[in-house]
Write a structure and sequence with these properties.
The complex is a heterodimer of chains A (291) and B (332). With 291 residues, chain A is an all-alpha fold. Helices cover 74% and strands 3% of the residues of chain A. Classes of the chains: A mainly alpha (291), B mainly alpha (332).
Chain lengths: 291, 332
């Protein structure tokens, strides 16, 4: 039982990290209607910039994390303006957008590698004191990751339902032609979406680095498909689905890691991806007409 | 550099060109002919290389601390075919699972992810192909039978892989012009229309994936026979990307274009910059810049010339329409 509770605790942490990125990615996918394979590098970028602000510039860690997330968000807008939107506006076949984002991923991951080197970095934050939360035994570090995720996701909920831009994003995701004739400024909403998704993925990178305690330049790449699994499991374009998917994938990877074999735990996320695509390709919370 | 080192370098470049040709043709069959975004193509190359390797090698019990499956001690032609078939089988399994009803972006995610999973599995499961250390010590094909010196053997190997390349060239073009090739292009252009005239898009895409994987496996088999070793660092995702970039730069669905692309990117750019002076302490600088440069080439190709340097030949009916046009204008 102790083992199970520990796995559940780790599952919540993984779910928090995955949920942050998955919500961002699903929002972007819903609005722009193409997959961005470069997000693995955005995870690395967020973690690295936060590390740089903290260690090299000597700014408080939490402020540095905000900096890392914001930097990644702005970077994501710039990239979409300079590259992705321009290609998307030409309405190319879906595979061409995939090729462009795949190229972007390799461009960015190699840029990170050149700037960063292969060195494994650590956040210098003293947060390894254990805390007891009901039956769960966690470290302060893990607790913080969870609190950050919950707060940020609540903010996203408020954004989507109580602000004009949030409603416009949902409208664009549901039916872009209808949103356009209703007077939604598509370019503006698309840019805001990229900003939010970039911030969320950058923040997710910081929390992933915090949860792992050490990170290298490509540490987000293999984690990306765990996030994709959560996105597809929840239904593409569905932020609440992505949260649910993240919880399921988080628990599944940690439980399988504890009871089966830790070396292959992310592979179980892949199994979920395959099963979802076979049993319910539209995802758990799918909107009508999108599959 | 003395003469034999220079000869060795030239021979290596020629062999790289030959294997990349076969590799690019295989991807061309999958993506160029049939439109399958196989974002883990290099995994199939690796499967071919590993299986060729373990079919050539003796049992793993002869090497202490090294673990791999099979170890059959077979002659090279058998091993090369085994590598090609193993890769084709992997293509069949992945294809049956993924090709059924996924639209292209889901399919790309699944293929991309399956590459990571397989990579992870091969790296951590020591008993399969010796984990991260990989397999090594493969005897060059026929080297024990032929009384050749190093240069003679290089020449022989080029001849051997050249014959394989010609065979694959023949097969790739034969498929393009066959009914199957036309069906593949029909599925690429519009799967619903192909279904409407009675072609199963699933079966046709599956055939394209399996045949393309066979090409990748043969290329992998030739590579491991030449390099004599194989480990996971040789098949990271950026390798898939280089083949994609070569195919798109050369011109998709055109095998001459694939050759041009394979010559420009993997050979001229990657091999040509191998001996650049190290102008910085940063060991990642040149390899990193190389991949970034390839990304930029890809962006430029997709923006300015998506059909590639040597575009796909116009289908006959389009030529016919073009020829017919002046007459119709005269008539009207």
């Amino acid at each position: 039982v102790a083992q199970l509770i520990e796995a559940l605790g780790f599952g919540l942490v993984t779910a928090s990290v995955v949920a942050l990125a998955a919500v961002g990615i699903t929002l972007q996918f819903g609005v722009t209607n193409y997959v961005n394979f470069a997000y693995g590098s955005y995870l690395g970028l967020g973690a690295f910039v936060a590390w740089f602000i903290n260690s090299a510039l000597g700014v408080t860690f939490w402020l540095a994390v905000v900096g890392g997330a914001l930097f990644t968000g702005i970077f994501s807008v710039v990239v979409s303006r300079l590259l992705l939107d321009r290609f998307a506006r030409r309405n190319p076949p879906a595979v061409y957008m995939l090729m462009v984002t795949l190229g972007l991923w390799l461009f960015l991951s190699n840029l990170l590698l050149i700037v960063w080197g292969t060195e494994i970095r650590h956040y210098t934050v003293a947060a390894d004191t254990p805390v007891k939360l009901g039956v769960l035994q966690l470290t302060v570090r893990q607790l913080i990751v969870m609190v950050v995720a919950v707060v940020v996701l609540l903010l996203i909920h408020l954004l989507l339902h109580s602000t004009k831009i949030g409603k416009q994003m949902r409208a664009l995701s549901d039916d872009s032609a209808l949103a356009q004739v209703s007077g939604v400024n598509t370019d503006y909403v698309v840019s805001v979406t990229w900003l939010i998704s970039g911030c969320l993925v950058g923040l997710s990178g910081c929390t992933l680095a915090l949860a792992l305690s050490g990170f290298g330049p490509g540490f987000g790449d293999a984690f990306l498909f765990v996030i994709f699994s959560a996105v597809i499991l929840g239904g593409i374009g569905q932020p609440y689905g992505a949260m649910l998917g993240a919880l399921i994938v988080g628990f599944a990877t940690e439980l399988s890691g504890t009871y089966l074999n830790a070396a292959y735990k992310t592979d179980f996320a892949f199994l979920f991806l395959i099963l979802t695509l076979f049993i319910r390709p539209q995802g758990l919370l799918a909107s009508r007409g999108r599959h | 550099m003395d003469l034999s080192a220079l000869l060795f370098y030239i021979a290596t470049v020629v062999i790289v060109f030959i294997t990349y040709n076969i590799l690019t043709w295989g991807l061309n069959i999958q993506f160029g002919y049939a439109g399958i975004p196989n974002f883990t193509y290099i995994t199939f190359w690796a499967a071919g290389a590993y299986f060729t390797g373990v079919t050539l090698l003796g049992p793993s019990s002869t090497q202490p601390g090294v673990h791999y499956i099979l170890g059959l001690n077979m002659p090279f032609p058998v091993a090369l075919i085994a590598g090609g078939l193993a890769s084709a089988l992997l293509g069949l399994v992945i294809g049956v699972v993924a090709l059924g009803r996924l639209r292209s972006d889901y399919l790309a995610i699944v293929l991309f992810s399956s590459g990571f999973v397989i990579y992870d599995f091969v790296s951590s499961f020591q008993g399969l192909f010796n984990g991260l250390d990989g397999i090594s010590g493969i005897l060059p094909p026929f080297s024990d039978l032929l009384p050749l010196d190093q240069n003679g053997y290089l020449f022989f190997f080029i001849l051997l892989s050249g014959v394989v390349m010609l065979l694959m060239w023949f097969v790739a073009n034969r498929i393009y012009n066959s009914g199957l090739g036309r069906a593949m292009r029909a599925v690429r252009e519009d799967a619903d229309v192909a279904e409407a005239i009675g072609k199963s898009a699933f079966r046709i895409k599956l055939k394209a994936l399996v045949i393309g994987s066979l090409f990748a496996g043969i290329a992998g088999g030739l590579t491991i026979a030449y390099v004599t070793a194989m480990n996971p660092s040789a098949w990271i995702s950026s390798e898939t990307f280089i083949v994609f970039a070569a195919m798109l730069l050369g011109g998709k669905a055109n095998n001459v274009g694939s050759m041009v692309g394979a010559f420009l990117l993997p050979v001229l750019l990657v091999e040509g910059t191998r001996f650049l002076p190290q102008f910085s302490d940063n060991a990642n600088l040149i390899p990193g810049l190389r991949v970034m440069f390839i990304s930029i080439v890809l962006f430029l190709v997709l923006w300015f010339r998506p059909q590639g340097l040597v575009p796909e030949k116009r289908p006959f009916y389009q030529l016919a329409v073009r020829r017919a046009k002046p007459e119709t204008t005269v008539a009207s």
